[in-house]
Amino acid sequence: MTGPELEGDERLAAEYAMGLLEGEELLAARGRMANEPAFAGLVSRWEQHLMPLLDDVADAAPSPEVWDRIASELAEAAEKDSPVVILQRRVTLWQRIAAGSAVAAVAALALLFVPVANTVDDRPAPAPDAPPLVASIPIADTPLRIGVTFLPERDDMLVAADGLTADGVHDHELWLVPPGEGAQVQSLGVVAPGTQKRVHLDAGLAQSMRDGAQILLSREPLGGAPDKSAPGPVVAEGTLQKT
């Protein structure tokens, strides 16, 4: 027996906690977390609720019946002298969310046989899209945060600074510290308070946006740091991590 289906902010918070949001949806959710303490509290509650459940999920190996089916299908294909057969494994994830209950995830193995032409295609298979990198940077002693999301396939950086307000005296600037000893700090630009902004990074800077890199938030004079090789006082920091 399951509870009622989740809707609205409860559903969105649960999907965020499970890492199901991507791209613009992820950016919008991060913006709401930075600007709406109530929504940030929902996400935190779901993260705490789901964390112990994920520890209980064990790896599941295919049963002997599945391997027997694979062998049988391949044998039939060989007997029929069919075209080249490509065996692919697809994993489908079903997730059911019920209020006050656990999240169930079931993986199923499927077989897909695709006939190909007689000609051989020597072109390399396209590389899968790299996962986004995200960092959450706290704003002073508040539950508000600045969300930074880097999309490697586009070299775009999304900055959600809804919770940051301008004081008319200072600007805040983001800085990148790549992982590794002796890495040089690089400016990512001045943060526009109260906005969600997309910035395209040049190739050199984008290559330095890697898992484990630090993102610093500094307080600068209006217009940003006069010397782009060194930040002013650092008031907060976060770490880029794969989603």
Question: Overview of this structure, please?
Answer:
The protein has helices at 8-17, 23-35, 37-55, 64-79, 203-208, and strands spanning 85-96, 104-115, 133-138, 145-151, 156-160, 170-177, 186-190, 196-200, 214-221, 234-239, 241-242. It is α+β, with helices and mostly antiparallel strands and 243 residues long. The protein folds into two domains: 1-117, no CATH class; 129-242, Immunoglobulin-like. The strands form three sheets. Strands 8-5-4-3-11 form a five-stranded antiparallel β-sheet.
The global form is globular
**Widest sheet: strand order?**
8-5-4-3-11
Number of H/I helices = 5
* Beta-strand proportion: 25-35%
The helical percent reads 25-40%
End-to-end CA span: 32 Å
Order of helices and strands: HHHHEEEEEEEEHEEE
Mean pLDDT: 75
How many domain units? 2
Low-confidence stretches: 81-119, 123-127
Structural class: alpha+beta
Biggest β-sheet description: 5 strands, antiparallel
| Topology, number of strands | 11
Rg, alpha carbons: 24 Å
Brief summary of the model shown:
With 243 residues, this protein is α+β, with helices and mostly antiparallel strands.
